[in-house]
Amino acid sequence: MSYKNLLVENSNGVTTITINRPSKLNALNKETIEELHDAINNADNSAETKVIILTGSGEKAFVAGADISEFANFSVNEGGKLAAKGQELLFDFIENLSTPTIAAVNGFALGGGLELAMACHFRLASDNAKMGLPEVSLGVIPGYGGTQRLPQLIGKGRAMEMVMTAGMINAEKALNYGLVNYVTTQEDLLPNCQKIAGKIMRNSSVAIGKAITAINANFKDSVNGFETEIENFGACFGTEDFKEGTTAFLEKRQANFPGK
Predict the structure, then answer these.
(1) DSSP 3-state helix, strand, coil percentages of the chain (rounded to 5)?
(2) How far apart are CA 170 and CA 130, in angstroms?
(3) Where are the beta strands (DSSP E) in 20-154?
(4) Which of 115, 172, 187, 227 is catalytic?
């Protein structure tokens, strides 16, 4: 399927989705959010996709923020609905995918762009990347999960400083903070993401999906993460992947997981 604002490519089990609005530094608008939901949902439901990589076109920006012109005149009610729908349609949706999703942050990741990267399961950044949540400089706060995911990733104090100052941090500081896993050159960013994807794909996709559920449970209110882990651990014993994995181990051979 073709999209107005996205480029989608599948190769060797990896679906790479590129946000392609270079004239707007890949800023998120309503249409792009809807297209991202559709493309990611299709990839998640495809047997050919084992890992998803999200990135931005060009060398300047992953996503430089939201398209402010779309909501500058919104009312209180409209603003609340904008955040709720965006979180449900894209940001929470990505976080809870069973398919591992990697953000390849190639340049600016600001506002909704950083929130999109944080919704992914983990992040790699190019050495020219700059990240921040500048919303308070516009008289608003992050509305796509930024006030929740940033403290989870880097700690409350650092998150408070980043939000309150509306400042940007560079890739090295993001690495030191634990906001990204690795920093690479622009040229090596996607190859490194693909290398990690290859390591992921050697393992059971069913077990990985259940691990994502268990890890996320630790960050959800009124959810006992240990109980979620126990439930998903037990569920693994009923899968074909578990039978193949344990049999392969005992037979001292490489597992060939069916993904069931």
Answers:
(1) 50, 15, 30
(2) 5
(3) 51-56, 61-63, 101-105, 108-110, 122-126, 130-132
(4) 115
Q: Is 135 a catalytic residue?
A: yes
Does 168 score more than 90 pLDDT?
A: yes
Phi and psi at residue 146, to the nearest 5°: -60, -40
C-alpha neighbours within 13 Å on the C-beta side of residue 206: 19
Q: Which is nearest to 9 in space by CA: 56, 45, 43?
A: 43
DSSP 178-202: TS-SEEE-HHHHHHHHHHHHHHHHT
| Mean predicted confidence (pLDDT) in 96-104 | 98
Query: Is residue 115 among the annotated active site residues?
Result: yes
Domain range list for the chain? 6-201, 205-250
Decide which of 189 and 2 is more confident.
Answer: 189
Question: Which amino acid is located at 43 in the chain?
Answer: A
Please enumerate in sequence order all residues whose Cβ is within 8 A of that of 34, keeping only pairs 6 or more positions apart, or say none.
89
Q: Is the pLDDT of residue 1 over 80?
A: no
Residue from 35, 70, 135, 161 carrying the catalytic annotation: 135
- The conformation of residue 88, written as its DSSP 8-state character, comes to I
Q: Name the DSSP class of 54.
A: E
Alpha carbons 57 and 122: distance in angstroms, whole number = 19
> How far is it, in rounded angstroms, from Cα 179 to Cα 61?
17
Using CA atoms in the order 131, 136, 142, 143, what is the torsion angle rounded to 10 degrees? -150
Percent of the chain with pLDDT over 90: 94
Fold exhibited by the domain 6-201: 2-enoyl-CoA Hydratase; Chain A, domain 1 (3.90.226)
pTM assigned to the model: 0.95
